[in-house]
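Tutorial handout. Part one gives the primary structure; part two gives the three-dimensional structure as tokens.
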Amino acid sequence: MRSFRALVAFAPLVLSAGCAGLSTVSDAAEPTAAASVTIFAKGAMGDVAPVRTILGPHTGLRFPSAAAVDARGQLSVANRAANSVTVYSSDASGNAAPLRTIVGARTGLNLPTGLALDGRGDVYVVNRSGNTITVYAPTANGNAAPIRTIEGSMTDLNEPTSIAVDAEQRVYVTNLAGRSVTSFARGASGDVAPVRIIRGKRTGLTAAFAIAVGPGGNVYVVNSDDKSISGVLVFGPRTNGDVAPIRVIAGSATKMETPSGVAVDPHGAIFVPDHGGSGNAGAVRVYAKDANGNVAPLYSIAGSATRLRPYGLTIDRTGEIDVVNQTD
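Part two.
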């Protein structure tokens, strides 16, 4: 199994347009085909075509890194190569322009790699280069300032890459360089300390890259490290300190090659986008809610018809699976 971090560890930054990720290019050089959102029907499996694809120059997609869907079905996407968040209608397809775009100097967006929504529709973004979390109003558009920003030395943010918000509006963030998960209280703002930090040798966190919170409060973390665990680590609710995960999904039977994200549906099934690697196509792997150890996925979405090169995904209220794709 090759890790996601193994592919990216030495990728150079190019001005403000790239990041240490699956690939790094300048804004001007990015090909249109490098960015898309593919939407699959609830229960999709195997070599199946998406029901819709958002792709083209009018979409504003520029190396999309994360996505989330609100209660109205509108899709928000963080674009790390454009320092933007684009928002699409629930039925967007093809070369569709976004309904709204958060972009500009006042936004504070600085290599946005993770995105989440809370129950009110507030938009939470982690900015990898800025070591910040910026929060926007549900209808934010244009050069809109955040309504809250978490930043500063007390936050312990260190190359944040992914974010999740639970039902109580508690915030969870993976820190790639910090080898940690930091959790902030509801409404946190400014230079505030996290209320909990998962970090230490027993945690297995050596390259914490993506995060989700399940319906029972468990915390799911994608760890991508070719010298350690490359898979999904599951921690119990409110875990704090140097604590071992309650479950680990990793090993050759899992079929994970370069896991790059994680989502959990309302029934607890675990969805992992797997970017694949050089010469290998991407896939979405789906595991049972109690999966543990070197276990095979229940099923996969994979094959030429899927057009997958996934970086992240979200599952909307109807069960549709929205996948953001980047090419190497």
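Part three, for discussion. Residues 3-33 have pLDDT under 50 and may be disordered. The chain has one domain: 4-326.
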